[in-house]
histidine kinase (Chryseobacterium kimseyorum), 792 residues
Amino acid sequence: MSKPSNHHTSDRQRIAETEARLKALIEATSDVVYSLSPDWHEMRELDGRGFLKDANAPSTKWRSENVHEDDLEMVNAKIEECIREKKIFQLEHRVLRADGTMGWTSSKAIPILDEHGEIIEWFGTAKDITPRKSAEEALENAQVKSDQQKRLYETVTSSTPDLLYVFDLDYRFTYANQALLNMWGKTWEDSIGKTLLENGYEPWHAEMHEKEIDQIKEKKLPIRGEVSFPHAVLGRRVYDYIFTPVLNEYGEVEAIAGATRDVTDRKKWEESLESSSKALHAVNEELANTNNELEATIKEVAVVNDELTKANAKIEEGQIAFRLAVNAANFGTWFVHSITREFITDARSKELFGYREDEAFSIEQALAQITDEYRPYVTEKLENAIYNNGDYDVTYPVIGLHDNRLRWLRAIGNLKADPSGDFSAFTGIVMDITEQYLAGEEIKRAEENLRMAVDAAGLGTFQISADDRIFTASPKLKTFFGFHPDEPMSYEAAISQIHPDFRKSVAANVERAFSEGTRFDMEHQIIGYHDEKLRWVRAIGEVHHKKGKKFFTGVIHEITEKKLDEIRKNDFIAMVSHELKTPLTSVKGYIQLMQRKFAGTEDNVFSSMLDKADFQIKKMTAMINGFLDISRLESGKIHINREMFNLSSLLREAEEEFMATTSSHILIFSPIESVKINADRNKIGQVIHNLISNAIKYSPIGSTIHVTCTSDHEFAYVHVKDNGKGIKPEDASHIFDRYYRVENDNMHSISGFGIGLYLCSEIISHHQGNISLESEIGKGSDFVFSLPLNVD
Ligand code: ADP
């Protein structure tokens, strides 16, 4: 703090103090300080501070000494303006520095005014801004240069069809030329700074390039590759690309520059070039061959010439043959002039219309012979053919003019412009097709009769197409299914009206018919759609091919009455058989009692009579049991009681039984494999028993019967093979039918009802097995049944 000033300190002293402070302040700045006369003519003082030349004494030469001549005009103009307006002078301009070189200053001078507002002095400072200015200038130059460079690059990169681009180390595009932008269909703003993925590259493609960029970052070596991807307009193209590392001054990878070239066309050229050169090679070879051949050919020409002469003769013969053929086929030919309607015909045409050869014959006359019913149709076709080039292939009946004969004629014509261009010639043939036509009509009538017969027999008919299961049914058939005769009915609707007990097997058999071509023949129940009536029907169908398409066609007829009769009959048989069993059992009991009683006596005659009675009773019991089985089967009461057992043990039991009771035949049970099955032991035993009994029954005494049991991984097989009389193929196909017996001379001497094999086949099919027969007449029969092994 300063001491309080003395009240008597003079003004002069105060001014001196202020001046000293001011000076100190000015000293402290590094700027040039100067003062000038009011009109700037005289530089009163200039402290150049090493930057400008000092002016210790007032000088009027300061402009030429300090200001750079190029800026003088500008400086003067500014001085004038500031003097006029008495405002602060402020300007950046070039100066001549103390060392005589050019420099830059930022100069500011303030006008000092007297109490009247007149300028008495300018007091100013000037700063050395040379370094800043030269930096700015250098920057500006650099900018101009870089702009030039950029323009140059732009011009180069935008005029090439190649794709040029730069990635930063984060895989972002920092540059993309116009061709690449075009290919993406994007703008610079949309795509720069974005990654490959963001610019629409497929993930595999982006990933591939990113890996390559990583590799370049690591190895600092360029990578070249080929890739194929879609172009916005041109579709899928092939590109050849090269990625190059951009290194900074320290040799580090700073960016990755890429160039890609569309080589699709080049590839194509290369390929075509290759194939052309191959072709060229081939042509050359051909040429060599051809030369050789040419010589040979010249020799051959002479031969061919001869041949030609001969062929010409043949053609002539051919033409004659053609004419003869026309005559033989008895075609008539005709010609119509499209303008004059002149009608030229041959004798045969006239004959077909009942005209004589020498008579005049016009189109109108020809039309007049056509029956009234057909005339308008033929006339219209004819006119349309001549004047509109319509097709002309017509069949019509004609009554001959003189002979009054009815003929069916077919005429085919063709319109052709005459080479003169003046008219068209309508030419053609006409033939007598009466016989074929009438035969066709006959077939139609026969079909109609058949339809009537089918109707009369009460048969419903159907057709199912293999491709799309389109179902066509006759009205009668629809009524069986409880639909109205004219109501639409689909295949699915038909199947769903079939009684659930049969539905699956009917559908499966239809499919089998389609896939294996098997005949379909089934009896099943239908529940009426509207009337809900239960009907029994028999359906028979077969697969046919019509016009290259597969169809399943057939007939259905109602058998409800017959079926109900059968059911009644079965019920009756069941009842009777059942009633017969009780007395039979008593009789059997009595006989056994008697057998025991006479066992110890000498009465052999009586004893053997009892044995025979016992044998007959056994036969009768077996028969009755058979009938009972049938009735159970028919009414669906057959039950399969499955258990696991070994088929071989069952066969061993059968072996023991037959060995004990049969002395008439040689029975061989071998090989008998051990095989476990899940089945109804009693019923399978019944089947085996039946087959062996039949073999004994139908083969001569003393002959051999072979029984075998084998298996594979799916089935067990049992064969019963005899050397008997065998079965004819036509019988073999029915042998498993109910009550079927082979008709022959000694049939009546062998007892039976034809139910044994029927029962066998039913039992086996209830086990999802199969039974079949191979037989040769006079040699013997081989019955085989199979049972599936893997059943739960
Ligand atoms: P049946 O009680 O009449 O024997 P099946 O149903 O067992 O009834 O046999 C039907 C018919 O098949 C027999 O009538 C017979 O003509 C013929 N048949 C069955 N087995 C044989 C066989 N092993 N050899 C020749 N014919 C046979």
